[in-house]
Amino acid sequence: MTVIVAFVSQKGGVGKSTLARALAREATFGGVNVKIADLDTQQGTSVDWHRLRLSRGIEPTISVEAFSSSSHALAASEGFDLLIIDGPARTSQATLEIASAANLIVQPSGTSRDDLVPAVREFHALINESIPHERLVFSLNRVGTAAEESSARRYLEKAGYHVLEGFLRDRPAYRQAQNGGKAITETYYSKLNKQSNALIQSLIDRIPTYG
Ligand SMILES: Nc1ncnc2c1ncn2[C@@H]1O[C@H](COP(=O)(O)OP(=O)(O)OP(=O)(O)O)[C@@H](O)[C@H]1O
Ligand SMILES: [Mg+2]
Fold first, then answer.
1. How far is the CA of 17 from the centre of ligand 1 (A)?
2. Predicted confidence (pLDDT) per residue in 100-123, tens digit
3. What is the distance in A from the centroid of ligand 1 to the CA of 1?
């Protein structure tokens, strides 16, 4: 059976493609047969990154393909252990369709109130559409300080949602790594790799059958 992990958000630029690529890299490295379905056909972030990764000969090779909808991605997922959906921003209908298909739905969010309020609203909307609560998790991204991280975590937990234990600091090295076809677990800095790895591990622990 193919397990499906989806990255969604209404807000753009929160880290969906960043986390999708890191999860794909770590799971592939661990021997899992993975495919990223890039559903953001306008931007094609993961597809573009994949091409760059291939051209630079970065191992392991990760399978990435663009699809116009989650149902098309699902239809092509046979033979893969893990299908990672890199979702588009700002399309509630597509988000609901993706969430309905996924075993785990991850919403990255920044730590400011401006980020947290719409992020919680998005998950409440999915609950209203009967998406099971235990499938929804938050991932804190672009964290500045420890205080910021803990207060954002408290806010999301109070709203009733699970927040992944790990988190990502806002670091140019994460951007640089991805600019060069690498994942955020493959930067030049071991401390940053350790932190992104811890986040991805906490994500893997939430995946039914892997956790
Ligand atoms: N923790 C971080 N530190 C520094 N830069 C980051 C971090 N997380 C993401 N970025 C950068 O922010 C930008 C947006 O990230 P990403 O493409 O993952 O977001 P997205 O949610 O997929 O965006 P979109 O909604 O446009 O698809 C990228 O340039 C990425 O490299
Ligand atoms: Mg994206």
1. 7
2. 999 999 999 999 999 999 999 999
3. 30
